[in-house]
Amino acid sequence: MKNLLILLLIIISTDVCANPINEGPTLKEQLSPPNQEFKQTLQKRSQIWIKGQWAIVNNTYVWVKGHWETKRAGFVFVDGNWIKKSNGWTWKEGYWKKIDMNKWLNLHT
User: Fold this and answer.
1) How far is the C-alpha of 18 from the C-alpha of 99, rounded, in Å?
2) How far is C-alpha 87 from the chain's CA centre?
3) pTM exceeds 0.90 for this model
4) Tens-place pLDDT, residues 40-93
5) What backbone phi and psi angles, to 5 degrees, belong to 74?
6) How far is CA 63 from the centre of its chain?
7) What b-and-e string marks burial along 50-80, b requiring 16 or more CB atoms within 10 Å of the CB?
8) Torsion angle of alpha carbons 2, 62, 19, 39, nearest 10°?
9) How is 55-93 classified by DSSP, letter by letter?
């Protein structure tokens, strides 16, 4: 399980140009987190808290716990979310989105 989590974190964190439309299979109901999610309130200057969310591995949903990740200059992390479709729900994975450097600097001052 630990190796799977490390692999997922590597996949999520190394693909800076991730496709923001990476969606998983459609389900009749949204999945709930496996347990109550820990909310991180401590702030770290060089890192960002990525809250727990679903990842898509081999067309299956796998829960990835919240974790600290190094901030990326000029990027913000967009959390994944459930999308309602005519035949059910599908998860759109979180991704790093490029933003104007001036906006990024204003967010982190």
Assistant:
1) 14
2) 24
3) no
4) 777 778 899 999 999 989 988 999 999 999 999 999 999 999 999 999 999 999
5) 85, 10
6) 10
7) bbbbbbbeeeeeebbeebeeebeebebbeeb
8) -80
9) EEETTEEEEE--EEEE--TTEEEEPPEEEEETTEEEEEP
